[in-house]
Design a protein that fits this description.
Blueprint: E1 4-5, H1 8-28, E2 34-40, H2 44-60, E3 63-69, H3 75-87, E4 93-96, H4 106-112, H5 124-131, H6 140-151, E5 160-164, H7 171-180, E6 184-188, H8 195-199, E7 204-207, E8 225-228, E9 232-233, E10 239-240, H9 245-249, E11 254-255, H10 262-283
Parallel strand pairs: 1-11, 2-3, 2-4, 5-6, 5-7, 7-8, 8-11
Antiparallel strand pairs: 9-10
Bound molecules: NADPH dihydro-nicotinamide-adenine-dinucleotide phosphate.
Function: Catalyzes the oxidation of 5,10-methylenetetrahydrofolate to 5,10-methenyltetrahydrofolate and then the hydrolysis of 5,10-methenyltetrahydrofolate to 10-formyltetrahydrofolate.
Protein name: Bifunctional protein FolD
Domain Tetrahydrofolate dehydrogenase/cyclohydrolase NAD(P)-binding: 139-279
Amino acid sequence: MSATVINGKDLAQELRNNMKEEVSELKEKGIIPHLTVILVGDNPASKSYVNGKKKASEETGIVSDIIELPVSTTEEELLNLIKELNQDVSVHGILVQLPLPEHIKEEHIIETIIPSKDVDGFHPINIGRMMTGNDSLLPCTPYGIVTMLKSRNITIQGKHAVVIGRSNIVGKPVGQLLLNENATVTYCHSKTRNLKEHTTRADILIVAIGIPNVINRDHLKQDAVVIDVGINRTDNGSLTGDVDFESAKSKASYITPVPRGVGPMTIAMLLKNTIKAAKGLSIN
Ligand code: NDP
C-alpha cells in the first residue's frame, strides 16, 4: 500500500477561494485587508518568497505592497519604518522577510511589530498566547501543518506526534499546536540520540531539519502520517524535502510532497492571518 499524498497546493487554492469571499464581504463593510511586506537586501530566495506572497494576496483581493530597502538599511531606520506602519490604520498586517542582514537583530524587529499586525505570528505575545491556548495570530507554517492534518480528518488527539527540529518558527510552535490539539509530543533535534528510536514511535512525524532525504521508511512506524517541512535546493535547482519521498510513501498512511506540500500552505495561512488582523482592527 502506498500513502495518500496531501497536496498542499490544491488545499491552499481551495482556502484562497474561500478567503476571496471573506475579503469581498469585508470590502462591502468598508474594510480593505492590507498586507505590507518589507524586504531588506537582494537575497534572490527572499525576493521570490515575497513575490509569491504578493501574488497570492492579490489573488484573494488583499491589498499587498512590498517595501524594498537596500542592504545598507540600519536597524534604526527599519525600526522607524515599522513604528510608522504600526500607526497606519490602513495597514492590517506587517511582515518583515527573514533572514535579515547580520547587522540587524531579528528579535528587535519582531518585537517592534505591534502584535495585532504580526501576521507571521512570531511576536513573543502571540507565541505566549498560543502557548496558553488563547486566541492569537499563529505562526504560518505550523498553522498550515495543523490545517493540512485537519483537512484529511486525521485524528490528532491522543496520537504520538514526533517533531524533528526545534526552531522558533517551525519546530517549537508546531509541537505546541499539536499539544493544544491533545497529541503527546516528542521533540527531536541535532543532539537527540538514537533518532530512529523516537521516530519509529510516531503516529504523526513532522520533519523540519533542512537536510535533504535524511528521513526514509526505516525511520517510520507503519502507517505513520509524515509531514515534510524541509525545503532544500538540489544541484540542478529543483526543490526537495527532508524526507526520501518514494521510500517513505511505501510505509506511511499520509505524506506531504515537496514542492506542493507545506510551502503553499504557509502562504495561505499568512493570508488568513491578514484577514483576521483586518477583522480585529474593525472591532477595536
Ligand atoms: P533551522 O535550521 O532553524 O532548524 C533546524 C532544526 O533541525 C534544528 O532544531 C536542528 O537542531 C535540527 N537538526 C539539524 N540536523 C539534525 C539532525 N541530523 N537530526 C535531527 N535534527 C537535526 O531550520 P527551520 O526550522 O527554519 O527550517 C527547517 C526546514 O524547513 C528548512 O529546510 C527550511 O527551509 C524549511 N522551511 C519550510 C517552510 C515552509 O513553508 N515549507 C517554512 C520554514 C522553513 P538544533 O536545534 O540542535 O540545531
